[in-house]
């Protein structure tokens, strides 16, 4: 079996195996080590020897046996009875042994809930989710977030310890707790996607490995909860946004605003699937924030050209979003939509309300939007100042280059030039 196919299968099975081992035997950190060793053994053996009849059962069996070895080794090192008593070997549990037939139950959703435990910070939730559910190695996660591997290792280790100390049982939460925790799960997946699609720092505008992983994990949640409209809305939002990925940068990796993009490069399959998902979700009742954002993305993607974008409808959708959230990024995008629907002065007036909001006042995007709207209004001198200020505040190198280029164009221009706004990134709900 080709190695690439084995790798894809192992990535799909990784959270199921870890979830099954944790559910049966506990010991989250030790179970993860055991599961990783089982996955490594499979990666070495299966390409040469072929797949076992039941790959998932094979992995769970190997992981459980390795967990037994790990716990026995720990017991050998710890002689005190109180320490020994705190560990329970797999064969001492009432659950079926790992080498007995396993069920087809998928513990991935429970594992996601555990990784998004409310005692963890969002950064720790993201790291632990990518490690335990996404199957990414610690070095891969560290590279994705441009962090030293040692720092990421400590973050993940602390997250595991917090989960262990919380004593949370390995089961799906019920009632209001389940709804709250599902919200945390979706938020983490959304943040992973955002960081991949619009990197907050570093030399690249986007990191496809993160967006792909966020979409894969969200598809998994959608399969497990097919009737949840917000899960469908989030998947739709990701697909509709990621559909524009190939058109967002030029050959020199320069940022290309949405209005200037070659729409022939947009992923028609993603758009069709996303539109179908959000259409079905919106029919189920009062829409949540992910559904509303997906509806906005659908209007952008379905417009034959930038000039034919339905800005009045997009404005109305942002107003609906603002009624459900006080997030300043929604208000910022609403200002852009107002400017496109009713003229730059309407957008600039809306921006005045955000000037003193500490959550966004120092963000480069506020200055970038002001620059765009001032340029639309013909005030090139003020627009140039705002572009330069936005460039100074931006952490992403492609964004810095784009903003400096806009400022330079205005400095050298004689005739008014209509700029292109870039509503091409999902709104930050954090």
TrEMBL record:
<keyword id="KW-0731">Sigma factor</keyword>
<dbReference type="InterPro" id="IPR046531">
    <property type="entry name" value="DUF6596"/>
</dbReference>
<dbReference type="InterPro" id="IPR013325">
    <property type="entry name" value="RNA_pol_sigma_r2"/>
</dbReference>
<feature type="domain" description="RNA polymerase sigma factor 70 region 4 type 2">
    <location>
        <begin position="112"/>
        <end position="162"/>
    </location>
</feature>
<feature type="region of interest" description="Disordered">
    <location>
        <begin position="408"/>
        <end position="430"/>
    </location>
</feature>
<dbReference type="Pfam" id="PF08281">
    <property type="entry name" value="Sigma70_r4_2"/>
</dbReference>
<feature type="domain" description="DUF6596">
    <location>
        <begin position="181"/>
        <end position="280"/>
    </location>
</feature>
<keyword id="KW-0805">Transcription regulation</keyword>
<dbReference type="InterPro" id="IPR036388">
    <property type="entry name" value="WH-like_DNA-bd_sf"/>
</dbReference>
<dbReference type="InterPro" id="IPR013324">
    <property type="entry name" value="RNA_pol_sigma_r3/r4-like"/>
</dbReference>
<keyword id="KW-0804">Transcription</keyword>
<feature type="domain" description="RNA polymerase sigma-70 region 2">
    <location>
        <begin position="9"/>
        <end position="75"/>
    </location>
</feature>
<protein>
    <submittedName>
        <fullName>RNA polymerase sigma factor</fullName>
    </submittedName>
</protein>
<dbReference type="Pfam" id="PF04542">
    <property type="entry name" value="Sigma70_r2"/>
</dbReference>
<comment type="similarity">
    <text>Belongs to the sigma-70 factor family. ECF subfamily.</text>
</comment>
<dbReference type="InterPro" id="IPR007627">
    <property type="entry name" value="RNA_pol_sigma70_r2"/>
</dbReference>
<dbReference type="Pfam" id="PF20239">
    <property type="entry name" value="DUF6596"/>
</dbReference>
<dbReference type="InterPro" id="IPR013249">
    <property type="entry name" value="RNA_pol_sigma70_r4_t2"/>
</dbReference>
């Amino acid at each position: 079996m080709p190695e690439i196919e084995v790798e894809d299968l192992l990535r799909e099975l990784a959270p199921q195996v870890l979830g099954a081992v944790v559910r049966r035997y506990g010991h989250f950190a030790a179970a993860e080590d055991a599961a990783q060793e089982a996955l490594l053994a499979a990666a070495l053996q299966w390409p040469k020897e072929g797949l076992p009849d039941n790959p998932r059962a094979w992995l769970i069996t190997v992981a459980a046996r390795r967990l037994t070895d790990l716990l026995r080794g720990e017991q050998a090192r710890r002689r005190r009875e109180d320490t020994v008593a705190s560990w329970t070997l797999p064969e001492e549990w009432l659950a079926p042994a790992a080498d007995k037939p396993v069920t087809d139950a998928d513990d991935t959703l429970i594992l996601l809930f555990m990784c998004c435990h409310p005692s963890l910070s969002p950064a720790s939730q993201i790291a632990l989710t990518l490690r335990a559910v996404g199957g990414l190695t610690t070095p891969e996660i560290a590279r994705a977030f441009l962090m030293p591997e040692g720092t990421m290792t400590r973050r993940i280790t602390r997250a595991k310890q917090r989960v262990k100390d919380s004593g949370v049982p390995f089961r799906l939460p019920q009632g209001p707790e389940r709804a709250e925790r599902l919200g945390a799960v979706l938020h983490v997946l959304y943040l992973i996607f955002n960081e991949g699609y619009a990197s907050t720092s570093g030399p690249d505008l986007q990191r496809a490995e993160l967006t792909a992983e966020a979409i894969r994990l969200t598809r998994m949640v959608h399969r497990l909860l097919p009737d949840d409209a917000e899960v469908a809305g989030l998947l739709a939002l990701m697909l509709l946004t990621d559909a524009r990925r190939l058109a967002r940068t030029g050959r020199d990796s320069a940022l290309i605003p949405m209005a200037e993009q070659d729409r022939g490069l947009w992923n028609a399959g993603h758009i069709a699937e996303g539109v179908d998902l959000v259409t079905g979700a919106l029919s189920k009742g009062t829409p949540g924030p992910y559904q509303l954002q997906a509806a906005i993305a659908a209007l952008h993607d379905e417009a034959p050209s930038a000039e034919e974008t339905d800005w009045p409808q997009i404005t109305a959708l942002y107003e609906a979003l603002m009624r459900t959230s006080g997030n300043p990024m929604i208000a910022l995008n609403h200002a852009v939509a107002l400017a496109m629907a009713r003229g730059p002065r309407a957008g600039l007036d809306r921006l005045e309300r955000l000037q003193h909001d500490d959550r966004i006042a120092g963000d480069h995007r506020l200055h970038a939007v002001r620059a765009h709207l001032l340029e639309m209004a013909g005030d090139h001198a003020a627009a140039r100042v705002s572009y330069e200020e936005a460039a100074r505040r931006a952490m992403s190198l492609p964004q810095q280059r784009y903003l400096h280029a806009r400022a330079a164009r205005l400095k050298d221009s004689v005739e008014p030039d209509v700029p292109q706004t870039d509503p091409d990134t999902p709104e930050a709900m954090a």
